[in-house]
Amino acid sequence: MLKEFKEFIMRGNVMDMAVGIIIGAAFGAIVSSLVKDIITPVIGLIFKADFTNLFWVMRDGTTPPLDGEAYRTLAEAQAAGAVTMNYGNFINYIITFLIVAFVIFMLIRWVNRLRRATEKPKEAPAVTTKDCPFCLSAIPIKATRCPNCTSELKTG
Length: 156
What we know:
- The structure is a single chain.
- This protein has helices at about 1-10, 10-45, 75-80, 85-120; strands at about 55-60, 85, 130, 140.
- The protein is built from 4 helices and 4 strands, in the order H-H-E-H-E-H-E-E.
- The chain folds into 2 domains: about 1-125, Non-ribosomal Peptide Synthetase Peptidyl Carrier Protein, Chain A; about 125-155, no CATH class.
- It has a two-stranded antiparallel ribbon with strand order 1-2. A two-stranded antiparallel ribbon has the order 3-4.
- It is mainly α and about 160 residues long.
């Protein structure tokens, strides 16, 4: 059983998959940082909002808000034990997904373009039929008589 497991692990496609998963996880971390640290602040400036602090308090926590009206930040609400719906984080995840999907689309588009450029054009199949000059039916190229109209055909 151990030998079979070792053979399974050492197959090329399993190793390729492992490398892909590791690179995918690293790529996900990079995209998450791009969204959280670069794109979200720019969008926040444009719309005058910080997405990470967009939340809805469903139930107040054990500690009421300091000013008696509302929690100013998500961290403050969570520290107070409030139950919140964090739709700002959801917006960040949607932006992250769209960026990853676009990058994967561009990568696949580039690979397909590269593949088409390196493919050899397919050769046309050899001609195996000709048209009978009398009835215009398709007949074998070596035929001396048309099987449809029985006309004698010139060879050569």
